[in-house]
């Protein structure tokens, strides 16, 4: 049984999220998802949707076997619990595959890191694009 792990913020679920998760699921037999905690998101603006609601939305997706919130202190703690065979990164996630693999090995976690190359094209296939569209419709710019 090959266990795949996907991670992300999953703010304002959109087709890009669905494509990433379905491609990640296709890499193995079961898909676990870690939803980022608000407190741990430092590389982009904080999510609009609260973390527990984002988790509920991800848990409801049929391609997801299990989902949980990430740790508020160490991103590797839930990875150690899940024990994935593969960690699937999205095409636009900021992680460097080799650096992540080295950090995993240093922590005794044996998981192959793979980048999902598929990317959903379209006007509203990112949370940022959805936010921009809402602001435009309401006569505001960001």
Outline of this structure?
The chain is of the alpha/beta class and 142 residues long. It has helices at 15-25, 51-59, 76-82, 97-106, 127-137; strands at residues 3-8, 30-35, 66-69, 86-89, 112-115. It has one domain (3-137): Rossmann fold (3-Layer(aba) Sandwich), CATH 3.40.50.620.
Verbal overview:
- By secondary structure, the protein is of the alpha/beta class.
- The protein has a single domain, classed as HUPs (Rossmann fold, 3-Layer(aba) Sandwich), CATH 3.40.50.620.
- It is 34% helix and 17% strand.
- The chain has helices at 15-25, 51-59, 76-82, 97-106, 127-137, and strands at 3-8, 30-35, 66-69, 86-89, 112-115.
- It has a five-stranded parallel sheet with strand order 3-2-1-4-5, with helices on both faces.
- The longest helix is centred in the N-terminal third of the chain and has 11 residues, at 15-25.
Question: What is the level 1 CATH name?
Answer: Alpha Beta
Low-confidence stretches: none
Helix-strand pattern: EHEHEHEHEH
Distance between the termini: 46 Å
Mean of pLDDT = 90
Number of strands: 5
CATH-derived architecture: 3-Layer(aba) Sandwich
Strand content: 15-25%
Strand order of the largest sheet: 3-2-1-4-5
Radius of gyration: 15 Å
Please name the CATH topology: Rossmann fold
Structural class: alpha/beta
The structural domain count equals 1
CATH superfamily, by name, is HUPs
